[in-house]
Amino acid sequence: MPRLRRIAGLVALAAGPVLVLGVFFVLPVSGMLGLGLWPDGRLDLEPAWEAITRERTARVAWFTLGAAASATVITLLLGIPAAYALYRLAIPGRRMLRAILLVPFVLPTVVVGVAFDSLLAADGPLGFLGWSDGPPAIITAMVFFNLAVVVRTVGSAWESLDPRPGEAAAALGARGWQAFWVATFPALRGSIVSAASVVFLFCATAFGVVLVLGGMRYATLETEIYLLTVNLFDLQAAAALCLLQFVMVLGLLAVAHRARRGAVAVQRVTARPRPVRVSDLPALLTTLLGVVLVAVPVLALVLTSLRDDGTWSLANYRRLGRSGDPDLPVSVTEALANSLRIALDATWMALLVGLLVAIVVTRRSYSPAERRVRGLLDGFFMLPLGISAVTLGFGFLVTLDEPPLDLRDSPLLVPIAQALVALPLVVRILIPVLAGIDDRQRQAAASLGASPLRATLTVDLAVVSKPLLAAAGMVFAVSLGEFGATSFLSRADHPTLPVLIFRLLGTPGEHHYAMAVAASVLLAATTATVMLITERLRVPGVGGF
């Protein structure tokens, strides 16, 4: 009976998130694949097989894997020391530095591609590097985008680790790296693997920066799917590449799940930042390098936005509030208001579903069957991160257009899509924290008469409250800058700011490009402010991060 009750509870808790993902992810993606593989109501795999076996497809797939793997390794090498410095050391202004590192996460990818292209061009400030036309520019831009993922995910777990095991190892003669490897890494392993898997998937599905910096020569599966869907309308080839991308994602999730199984569960505490020592110099220098990597492209955007007809001026910002431009449906400030409303809806949706998923997959398993079910659920809810946002957006259009799911004119359509894009990030942030809770605390609460719900609220909620706040800030940031799916779903008269920026970049006119850059600076400043407020709201003395 207890086993049946546990399985019934697991099914009941997972039913809601599974239904949400089934309706708003599986159905749209299946609809898109159906158009490609069943074009006339019958299965036709020959065009799909021809697309997969093309020489170009092989090049695109290998470049996708190589670029994503390289960017992930570099991001980890920069992000782990930065996480240590910004979450364990008493550095002045560390909360501001965290917010600065998050800014790239919300910049429209197309604008970042333009920024890097101008920086690395032959006549640009960094032209001497010779990276203007090739993989180095793409990989650097990927690191620029994803550094915040490692810093936030690993740093949050590191901040709440008990420092005494590391201090004991040092007292017994272990030197810096040896003490880290023996005492700290086992406790951080889950968060590092989680961050690496998220970064790899973000890099493998990068869109705007690859489109701008790589063009047709250096394409990833994501940009190739976009080209086949939008430009060539070759849905059968696009569906084949979606399946190839799906297989790659499943393989990565299986590897990440196996790596996380060996992670050590530790007691979470509230560790005060300690003073900086001489031995922390390498971590501080690495953090400085990360800040420079983030600051230089952003600074280039700011300087470009302040130039008007060859002079320094605020004219581009004054144009943002005007709605009389015949080429634009709304002003930039109205588009920003649309983005804020949509991001708020996407945030509560992603947090609600993500928290339920994290609770389901981190509860103690009492049998191999339960463990396998939880592992499958964990992988299932990571799938939106590895499926093309182009596929998801196009799938929404072709499947959610008839009763009872006719959402074409619903104001919730875009927030739902953005929440699905951000959902894996919420899950990856919360899982290491919830997995680190000692189950004996819940048992102690139950022995004192607490019901399962009250035990969860008493033990889990106290630990997860701050991670939830951090996850909310990350989801809000992702939603503000999301472009792939939103470009398909955003209504022409209610565009989000990234969609309007993209339209400005493609609209002829003397001031449209400068307005797009100014709008990007406005978007970055808005998100940095939100994240700084999130950091200020964190309550000292509560577990989590």
UniProtKB/TrEMBL annotation:
Subcellular location as annotated: Cell inner membrane; Cell membrane
Pfam annotation, one family: BPD_transp_1
Ranges annotated as spanning the membrane: 7-27, 60-87, 99-116, 136-155, 192-215, 235-257, 278-303, 346-363, 375-400, 412-437, 457-480, 513-533
InterPro entries: MetI-like (IPR000515), MetI-like_sf (IPR035906)
Keyword Oxidoreductase among record annotations: no
Topology within the bilayer: Multi-pass membrane protein
Keywords annotated in UniProt: Cell inner membrane, Cell membrane, Membrane, Transmembrane, Transmembrane helix, Transport
Coiled coil: none
Gene3D superfamilies: MetI-like
Domain called ABC transmembrane type-1: residue spans: 61-254, 336-534
Entry-linked CDD domains: TM_PBP2
Source domain of life: Bacteria
Family indicated by similarity: Belongs to the binding-protein-dependent transport system permease family.
Protein name from the UniProt record: Iron ABC transporter permease
